[in-house]
Amino acid sequence: MSSKNHKIVNGKLLQTDKRFSQLKMKQREKIYKWMYEETLHYYMNKHKMPYGKQCSIVVDAIYDRIIEAEIWIPYKEIRYQYIKKKTKLINKLTKKIYQTNSSDTDHISDSI
């Protein structure tokens, strides 16, 4: 029994069940960068990190960027990768935010 996992969209043959690991390295790096940027954007707007259902908001924003870049990968694969990398992203952002806040207080204490 064969299952079809390709379809033609806009004259291009697309694999409908593509895995994240099958993307080119540059595409994966772009998507990781967008994951970081969208998580930071969420934090700056909401003043908290995305957890639970809030992750869908971030994943939707990431997927919108992927669609604009014409990278074909299923939404569920991006959601899986985001959940997998979320802890590392949040730790990286927390460290960056903490360093930014401590450097701001250093400048204030230097001027006093």
Task: Please tell me about this protein's structure.
By secondary structure, the chain is mainly α. It has a domain at 24-93. 65% of the residues lie in helices and 7% in strands. It is built from 3 helices and 2 strands; from the N terminus they run E-E-H-H-H. The chain has a two-stranded antiparallel sheet with strand order 1-2. Helix 1 (25-46) packs across helix 2, helix 1 (25-46) packs across helix 3 (75-111) and helix 2 crosses helix 3. The longest helix is centred in the last third of the chain and has 37 residues, at 75-111. The chain is elongated, with a radius of gyration of 18 Å. Mean pLDDT is 84; it is low at 108-112.
Which key features would you list for this structure?
mainly alpha, 65% helix, 112 residues, elongated, 2 strands, Transposase, disordered C terminus, two-stranded antiparallel ribbon
Overall spatial form: elongated
What's the order of the H and E elements?
EEHHH
Amount of helix: 55-70%
State the helix count.
Answer: 3
Provide the structure class: mainly alpha
- For the termini, the CA-CA separation is 76 Å
Number of strands: 2
> How would a textbook summarize the main sheet?
2 strands, antiparallel
Q: Beta-strand percentage?
A: 5-15%
Task: Detail the poorly predicted runs.
Answer: 108-112
- Across the major sheet, the strand order is 1-2
Rg over C-alpha atoms, rounded to the nearest angstrom: 18 Å
Instruction: Provide mean pLDDT, rounded.
Output: 84
Organism: Allocoprobacillus halotolerans
Protein name: Transposase
